[in-house]
Write a structure and sequence with these properties.
Length: about 140
């Protein structure tokens, strides 16, 4: 139903106002026929990747926050980003989480009964997906 309704809508152009694009969609006569179910399904489809990534990052932050000192966190900050301060887990990026957890001495602080290498491989896959999603790379989602 949505594809039939939006079939005549041109792809949004870079630099154009989102408000203008939404106004064009609202002006379509078939927009009135779009059900709440169709809209909520589309909303879920568009937002779910962001929400899942947020959940994963929040779980990682809790895991790391309970096991590492501020000094531990600062030690994995990207050296190229020396102007950024690290005072808490949320100041790190996912690559820095990986750097921290790839270190066997750091990993042992977690006291997890999981294979470190396998965990880090999976975390790297999450990192790649996260970057595709957060940088709006639709081809890979």
């Amino acid at each position: 139903m949505l594809s039939a309704c939006f079939g005549g809508v041109k792809q949004a152009q870079a630099g154009r106002s989102c408000t203008r694009e939404v106004s064009q969609i609202k002006a379509l006569s078939c927009f009135e026929d779009v059900s709440k179910q169709a809209l909520s399904s589309q909303f879920q489809l568009l937002t779910e990747p962001f929400l899942l990534i947020g959940e994963i990052e929040n779980h990682l932050r809790r895991l790391i926050a309970n096991s590492f000192s501020v000094e531990d966190l600062q030690s994995v900050r990207d050296e190229a980003d020396d102007k950024r301060t690290v005072n808490k887990v949320a100041d790190l990026n996912i690559g820095e989480y990986m750097r921290l957890l790839e270190n066997p001495a750091s990993w042992s602080k977690l006291n997890l009964k999981l294979d470190r290498r396998l965990f880090c491989e999976q975390l790297d896959e999450v990192r790649r997906i996260r970057n595709d999603v957060m940088h709006f790379n639709n081809d890979k989602m």
